[in-house]
Design a protein that fits this description.
This protein is of the alpha+beta class and 486 residues long. The protein has twelve helices and five strands.
Length: 486
């Protein structure tokens, strides 16, 4: 027999159904009040470098000191102090910091003063109102946390850009300094080659005059002398270019001879790397920026989801109104106080808010993929730099072995000339061969030094920012989650 609606069993079932529905609704509401978690960042790093060696590696924060060149140290310090790109990045960090601080105040009570006036339809009088209004939006359903994440993501991105600028400025300063010293040494060697070529031409002219050589030899000797003179243009241009590039890196319009005078090419000893691939996550600014983009995208998704839910708060106003009649009469002002909840509930938007949620969700997925790509690209760049540095070391070592035999041949040619067994042409030819070997060795030294710079740029090596420019605390949970996963 069916149970009637008024039976005790039916009433019990109804109470249980209401209780379960209320519990489910309360659980959904509490869950909606919590912001979405930032997705954990995947680990794409291998356990160790493929081409790492056991040589001690310089400190990532002062790696250029491996050249043991005080002039270079002073130059880098000046660039870190005076570079205009770094000054711009510091200003942008300060702007992002101010905006992040403002985002923390968005859900505190706001008070405003207002005035309002409007004439009556017959223009016989006007109403003048003034007063205060206050509103306090609670920022529930994860809105406040999500807005803070967006601001923190922007701030962390500014920090990462500032660190990227430091990495680039230090690397470009060291690289340009190496190019300057290399060009100065090339100019010295090529100037000696040009002088020897001129003396060789004079000796060949003497041989031709004594009918000991054909006129064609003189033509070739003169052509070689002209080519040696023309070769001086390249290092001179390189010197001028490097000096002005360094001046620009130092934020100056003209080169400073006190910093950019003559000097020997800095010598780099054995070089290696002591860090692990996973360290790139902490040192490479582009990876830190990709991490900040994940945080920002998570915040934007949280805001989009909160936009589908009610906005709750409190509001109130204190308003005074007076009627102005004619030109001089002013009625007594009456005041009224209002206070109550401020509720805004989205009802019908034809799926617009959900579309924004879907777009922000896709954007968050894209930022996670971008983070993975940044890590993979960083590893590939560092591995390539390691391979290049090792090959340049081998090349330099091979070319250095050619110097000793050529120096011995030069000394032997000088001895034969002193004993009268040969004229000066033999010695000049030996000097020319030695000078060319020195030029090749210098080029190899410079290429190896530049590869060393490229390696530490790939590793994100640069001085850390000042203590007041540390990453915001909101971004750390995502990074710590990634480290925990590793």
């Amino acid at each position: 027999m069916p149970i009637s609606d008024s039976s005790p069993t039916a009433r019990l079932r109804l109470r249980r159904l209401v209780a379960r529905s209320t519990t489910a609704a309360l659980a959904a509401t509490l869950a909606a009040c919590v912001a979405l978690p930032v997705p954990p960042l995947p680990d794409e790093t291998p356990a160790q470098w493929e081409r790492a060696n056991a040589a001690p590696a310089p400190d990532l924060r002062s790696w250029w000191k491996a050249f043991h060149d005080p002039a270079l140290d002073r130059l880098v310090d000046a660039a870190l102090s005076d570079n205009l790109t770094l000054a711009q990045s510091v200003a942008r960090v300060e702007a992002a910091r101010q905006l992040a601080g403002a985002s923390d105040l968005a859900h505190l009570p706001q008070v405003n003063f207002h005035t309002y006036s409007e004439p009556t339809p017959d223009s016989s009088a006007s109403y003048f109102q003034f007063g205060f209004d206050a509103k306090w939006e609670f920022g529930w359903f994860g809105r406040s946390t999500s807005e803070h994440r967006v601001a923190a993501g922007n701030l962390d991105a500014a920090y990462a850009d500032a660190q990227s600028a430091r990495v680039s400025v230090v690397a470009e300063t060291v690289k340009t300094y190496l190019e300057l010293r290399g060009a100065q040494q090339r100019l010295t060697l090529l100037d000696g080659v040009a002088n020897d070529a001129q003396r060789r031409g004079d000796l060949v002219a003497t041989r031709v005059r004594l009918r000991m050589a054909a006129p064609g030899e003189l033509v070739r000797a003169q052509a070689q002398a002209a080519a040696a003179q023309a070769a001086l243009a390249e290092p001179r241009v390189a010197i001028a270019r490097s000096r002005h590039q360094l001046a620009a890196l130092l934020g100056r319009a003209e080169p400073d001879d006190a910093l950019l005078g003559e000097g020997a090419f800095p010598q780099l000893g054995e070089s290696g790397i002591a860090s692990a691939p996973a360290d790139l996550v902490r040192t490479r600014p582009d990876i830190r920026r990709a991490e900040a983009d994940v945080l920002k995208s998570a915040g934007e998704l949280g805001i989009a989801r909160a936009d589908r839910l009610p906005r709750l708060g409190l509001g109130g106003a204190l308003t005074y109104a007076a009627r102005v009649i004619g030109r001089t009469r002013l009625s007594d002002a009456d005041g009224i106080v209002t206070f109550g909840p401020a509720i805004e509930i989205p009802l019908l938007d034809w799926g617009m808010r959900q579309t924004v949620v879907d777009a922000r969700d896709a954007q968050l997925s894209a930022s996670v993929f971008a983070y993975r790509q940044a890590v993979i690209d960083g590893i590939a760049e560092a591995e390539t730099a390691l391979a290049t540095l090792e090959e340049q070391r081998r090349r330099e070592a091979a070319l250095a072995q050619t110097l000793a035999p050529l120096e011995h041949e030069t000394q032997a040619a000088a001895t034969r000339q002193r004993l009268g067994f040969a004229d000066g042409i033999d010695r000049l030819d030996a000097d020319a061969a030695l000078a060319q070997a020195k030029l090749d060795t210098l080029a190899a030294q410079q290429d190896r030094a530049v590869a060393f710079v490229a390696l530490y740029k790939a590793l994100g090596g640069a001085p850390l920012p000042p203590p007041d420019q540390a990453l915001s605390s909101t971004s750390r949970p995502a990074h710590s989650t990634a480290k925990a996963a590793r």
